[in-house]
Specification:
The protein is of the alpha+beta class. The protein contains twelve helices and 22 strands. It is 25% helix and 26% strand. The longest helix has 18 residues.
Length: 453
């Protein structure tokens, strides 16, 4: 049952139809959608539940499913072949296609990134860019690291910082995404338990927090760069009133986004400055509640200066020789040894990596290759998840039952030769195993293993 104060707070909002809104929540229709990892091979060997999938109009890698499967029992979900994401939030791709249709090597920040859906979308769009995914809260940051590792992109950095820490990087980013923490009313149909947590006080608290995040992070956006603001709330206090605050900042301009009439997305304007925002209602779109707005920073008020004086430890000539003995390293990367793990970083962003390492708490960056023990390479799980075309060691293809045993980190006896192998299912890598004469050692990360079912 939707609270009366909540419904009253929505009266008069653009596109709000109380009767239709209440009805769609009473029906409790379950909509499941996912976004394909275009850098992996899911569409060549899709999961069985994908047979009757239908496309999402505003995202060319997004699809609706006929019903919700048990994703935890699909090995391809664990392999990062797709991301289960709410359809309305995938509108971010439409925004990116309009503001950055042919992206140069841009630097992009998702400042409230966990669990990682929008960050991975950014990574796919900005394939030649650098995407920083930040999450302040430690346990949510761990989930973010897991999801980004499984996605397999090597152009991502995960940080764990308060938004205010990004003041140290004035005019550093071309795109700033603030998918702000909010009261969550847009997800009431999907998560009815969230209704009990809604209150006018919670909305006010979120509004204050949203304002602070914007104020703390706006300086890190370059002149000419774009700020994308979004919430999963219907509240004007968290939506139109917040974008009024953004457009009131010196140099900020509201940007129109073209939408198709049959998408049934509602265009709204802020009460003071007529800044454009876009509302998604579940009685009008096939998705949950969502709000998004876009701004361009036409004039910067800060001087560009940040300290990139940070020295990383390059791998030695001997380490490079050992790596080359296992596989051909991709070009256009430089290689460092960080906490006994060799990491590949894009050479074109060397100064940016050093700046981030100097000024922020970095949890993950680039592509972890593994560690060296003499002449042996102990491969990192991230390397198995990577979208690199050439990796060390052979592969061993397994069936679904064996794949699930592997993902449970159970004992295995895999066919094939000896030594390290990438375990694959439907030609998609799940992780590493070391084959021995009488057994196979399972190297799937213990903290990510399937615990139930």
């Amino acid at each position: 049952m939707l609270p009366t104060p909540f419904l009253s707070s929505l009266n008069g909002l653009p596109g709000f139809d109380k009767d239709a809104f209440v009805k769609v929540h009473e029906q409790k229709e379950s909509i499941t959608s996912l976004r394909i990892n275009a850098s992996k091979t899911f569409l060549e060997h899709p999961s069985s539940f994908f047979d009757n999938a239908t496309p999402i109009a505003w995202c060319d890698t997004g699809f609706y499913l006929q019903e919700r499967p048990m994703f935890v029992l699909d090995p391809l979900w664990h392999a990062g072949a797709y991301y289960v994401q709410e359809a309305s939030s995938m509108f971010l791709q439409q925004v990116l296609q309009q503001i950055a249709p042919n992206p140069s090597p841009m630097q992009v920040l998702d400042i409230c990134a966990a669990p990682g859906g929008k960050s991975t979308l950014l990574a796919n769009h900005f394939k030649n860019g650098l995407v920083v995914a930040n999450e302040t809260i430690k346990n949510r940051n761990a989930i973010l690291v897991e999801n980004i590792t499984k996605w397999g992109a090597d152009n991502m950095v995960v940080t764990q910082n308060d938004p205010s820490h990004f003041k140290a990087l004035p005019q550093f980013f071309d795109i700033l995404l603030i998918d702000a923490p909010c009261s969550g009313s847009g997800l009431f149909r999907k998560d009815p338990e969230a209704i009990s947590h809604w209150s006018e006080e919670a909305v006010q608290h979120c509004s204050v927090r949203q304002s602070r995040i914007i104020e703390d992070s706006i300086d890190c956006l370059k002149e000419g760069g774009y700020l994308i603001y979004s919430t999963c709330s219907y509240s004007m206090q968290e939506d139109e009133k917040i974008i009024d605050q953004i457009v009131a900042i010196e140099g900020m301009r509201s940007v129109d986004i073209a939408i198709e009439n049959n998408w049934n997305i509602i265009t709204s304007t802020s009460p003071m400055y007529n800044a454009k925002g876009y509302r998604f209602y579940p009685d009008k779109v096939k998705g949950e509640g969502f709000f998004i707005a876009v701004f361009q920073k036409e004039k910067a008020t800060t001087v560009t200066y940040y300290d990139s004086n940070f020295e990383t430890t390059s791998i030695s000539k001997k380490e490079a020789e050992v790596l080359h003995s296992h596989f051909t390293l991709p070009s256009d990367y430089y290689y460092i040894n960080h906490q006994e793990t060799i990491i590949a970083l894009a050479s074109s962003f060397k100064d940016a990596f050093n700046t981030l390492l100097k000024n922020l708490y970095v949890k993950k960056m680039g592509m972890a290759i593994g560690s060296l023990k003499g002449a042996d390479l102990i491969p990192a799980h991230a390397l198995a998840m990577s979208t690199w075309s050439h990796l060390p060691f052979e592969t061993v293809e397994v069936d679904e039952a064996t794949a699930l045993q592997y993902l449970r980190r159970a004992d295995l006896h895999l066919p094939g030769g000896k030594g390290w192998h990438a375990v694959t299912f439907k030609n998609t890598r799940l992780g590493w195993a070391k084959l021995l004469p009488n057994r196979s050692n399972n190297y799937y990360p213990n903290e990510w293993r399937i615990l139930k079912y």
